[in-house]
TrEMBL record:
Residues 36-201 form the 25S rRNA (uridine-N(3))-methyltransferase BMT5-like domain. This is 25S rRNA (uridine-N(3))-methyltransferase BMT5-like domain-containing protein. It comes from Lactuca virosa. Pfam families: BMT5-like. SUPFAM superfamilies: S-adenosyl-L-methionine-dependent methyltransferases (SSF53335). One of its GO terms (biological process) is rRNA base methylation. GO terms for cellular component: cytoplasm. Transmembrane segments: none annotated.
Length: 347
């Protein structure tokens, strides 16, 4: 390990020599960016950026695997991690992309670039199978919903993804739009732009082997104006995994449902979370101008339920719909009472 660090340290020193303070770029990424790398395999992508920058002090890199599992999966993981730590990277293990904003070391952090290369829910069957596609989409959607709360002003979320069939069925851009992001650029991905990067399967007995890349692109997203407005005016962050109040009117921050209307079912919120986010983001807007209607949000909930309960009767889904319907009626009742009180106040 000492020899490896010495060799890489010499290369980094050469990169830094006579260039103190000079901004350096590795394709889309700058040494001046605060960068969060999500779902790293053997951390070779992180190391590639660090080698280009001559430092890793601006990098936070995470893996879903614990450190112990990581070094068993990947032959070079231990040395890559050691080098990154030596040169200033913050490395976090056991970080799940669908709730990463709640991680102790990330909950107050903001980033210029949040990067997820080749997100994948695991080898659960044929990639063209509907259930498998839905599992992948749920992963990406959960990542986006976390990333939007972790961006600095003018920050970007990057996802590199295979774009040939059946991977194009993931509809990355649609998932981003549903999560409050807007595509600004889509560029061909070339692995040679990142010297030393080795893509990994990351699952099963062949975890340390590469997978064929084929046609790939890096999708770049920024916050949509609607999401930016909501995040700017929101007075507190909400836990996406916990029951929440449903705000009725963005213009009145004090208007909230009473405790009897608080949603009690975590499962209902989980299945229909896009619907509740939709309610918060579009309250007070005319439906004709909405990109995605309530029906679209409920369709996503149905797809998620099917993916997570494949082959089971739909009785459970019907029960969740009934609960959602009951909550919606209570919301309407609350809104009517609130408007009547406002009218009396004005009189």
């Amino acid at each position: 390990m000492a020899e490896i660090v010495r060799r890489h340290g010499h290369r980094m020193s050469m990169n830094r020599r006579d260039e103190v303070g000079k901004e350096k770029w590795a394709k889309h990424y700058s040494s001046n960016h605060q960068i969060l790398l999500v779902g790293e395999g053997d951390f070779s992508f992180s190391l590639s950026l660090a080698m280009s920058f001559g430092s890793a002090s601006n990098i936070v890199a995470t893996s879903l695997d614990s450190y112990d599992i990581l070094i068993k999966k990947y032959n070079r993981a231990k040395s890559n991690v050691g080098i990154l730590r030596y040169f200033g990277a913050q490395l976090l293990h056991g970080v799940d992309s669908i709730n990463m904003k709640l991680h102790t070391d990330l909950r107050i952090r903001k980033f210029d670039r949040i990067v997820y290369n080749f997100p994948h829910a695991g080898f659960l069957g044929k990639e063209s199978d509907h259930l498998v596609i839905m599992m992948h989409k749920n992963l990406v959607r959960g990542f986006f919903m976390n990333a939007i709360d972790m961006l600095l002003p003018n920050g970007e979320v990057h996802v590199t993804h295979k774009t040939a069939h059946p991977f194009d069925s993931w509809n990355i851009e649609e998932l981003a739009t549903q999560s409050g992001l807007t595509l600004i650029e889509c560029m061909d991905f070339k692995i040679e732009d990142y010297p030393g990067y080795n893509n990994k399967r990351g699952d099963g007995k062949d975890s340390d082997l590469p997978f064929p890349l084929g046609k790939c692109s890096t999708f770049k997203f920024i916050l949509s104006s609607q999401a930016m407005e909501y995040l700017t005016t929101s007075h507190h962050r909400r836990n996406p995994q916990q029951p929440q109040e449903i705000p009725l009117q963005r213009g009145n921050a004090n208007a909230r449902m009473d405790s009897s209307i608080m949603m009690k079912s975590k499962e209902c919120f989980w299945i229909f979370r896009e619907y509740f986010n939709h309610v918060r983001l579009t309250s007070g807007k005319v439906d004709d101008f909405l990109t995605y209607s309530v029906k679209d949000m409920l369709r996503i909930g149905f797809e998620r339920y099917n993916a997570e309960n494949h082959g089971k009767p739909l009785d459970g889904y019907v029960d969740l719909l009934k609960e959602l319907h009951s909550l919606s009626k209570q919301r309407v009742t609350f809104l009517q009472k609130w408007l009547m009180e406002m009218d009396r106040y004005r009189l």
